[in-house]
Design a protein that fits this description.
Elements: E1 7-9, E2 16-23, H1 27-34, H2 40-43, E3 49-54, E4 64-71, E5 73-85, E6 89-93, E7 99-106, E8 112-119, H3 125-134, H4 136-157
């Protein structure tokens, strides 16, 4: 059996990383999972998302949602949805202003191409420094790819 992998994309920036995968499921089904913050822990490839602690069951533009996180030590973070196109795109950011985005494109064969992007190009200097000293940018491509593989597995078994 061939191992499922997401394709890591070249963003042309050391402050952004992106990967994509093709999922045998309708875009709306995938989007519904991503738009439910209670499900984020299920497909998080970084192991940092511990669970949803506050916010709506379904995200929308401007929605705020709190997550329990852990990178060495547990902490909580509040995210705000900054882009939302039903069934196609969702992005959120938090205090440090980097964004996590999911773009969904329905393909002619009935599958959906999902692209996940972490973008820290427009954040304050101190936040860029934090990313560099924590090594987050070195880990993010692998973590994003792993998240997409998990998302694919969930969506293709439901």
């Amino acid at each position: 059996m061939e191992k499922v992998r997401a394709e890591i994309l070249d963003t042309g920036s050391d402050l952004a990383t992106s990967a994509q995968i093709e999922i045998n499921a309708p875009a709306q089904q995938i989007f519904d999972l991503i738009a439910d913050p209670r499900c984020h822990q299920l497909f998080d490839g970084s192991g940092t998302v511990q669970g949803s602690i506050s916010g709506p069951v379904r995200l929308h533009l401007g929605a705020k949602f709190g997550m329990a996180m852990k990178i060495r030590l547990p902490y909580r973070i509040t995210n705000t949805v900054v882009a939302f196109e039903e069934g196609r795109k969702i992005s959120w950011c938090h205090l440090m202003k980097w964004t996590w985005s999911y773009q969904l494109e329905e393909l002619a064969n009935g599958n959906t191409r999902v692209t996940e992007t972490f973008d820290a190009r427009e954040i304050p200097f101190f936040a860029k420094h934090w990313l560099k000293i924590t090594g987050a940018m070195a880990h993010n491509p692998k973590w994003i790819a792993k998240s997409l593989v998990r998302l694919k597995a969930i969506c293709e078994t439901n």
